[in-house]
């Protein structure tokens, strides 16, 4: 019997497509997924990091930093999602001022 390890996620459908990766510690990176392994180490090309607000490290700003080709360690990866088909919407729970 061979105890072959397989990854829980099937990232093959995201190869050569844009992905958004959230990392431990609050960093957020987008780029083109070029490769991965069973430990969830990701290789991203043309990666861009969204910088955080210096006053509130939990919030990201519109400022970005170009990183180029990077490797995201599997132990730091929290979330992997495609960039296509995702949009930010307005908060539906905010009460209007007049209510």
From TrEMBL:
Q: Which UniProt keywords apply?
A: mRNA processing, mRNA splicing, Nucleus, Ribonucleoprotein, RNA-binding, Spliceosome
User: Does the record bear Kinase in its keywords?
Assistant: no
Question: What GO MF terms are annotated?
Answer: RNA binding
Protein name per UniProt: Sm-like protein LSM7
Which superkingdom heads the taxonomic lineage of this protein's source? Answer: Eukaryota
The Sm domain sits at 6-86
Query: Biological process GO annotation list?
Result: mRNA splicing, via spliceosome; nuclear-transcribed mRNA catabolic process
Say which species the protein is native to: Cicer arietinum (Chickpea)
According to the UniProt record, one GO cellular component term is: U6 snRNP
What family classification does the UniProt entry report for this protein?
Answer: Belongs to the snRNP Sm proteins family.
Protein location: Nucleus
Q: Which PROSITE patterns match?
A: SM
Among Gene3D superfamilies, the record links this protein to: 2.30.30.100
Output the PANTHER family linked to this UniProt entry: SMALL NUCLEAR RIBONUCLEOPROTEIN, U6 SNRNA-ASSOCIATED SM-LIKE PROTEIN LSM7
The protein's predominant localisation is: nucleus
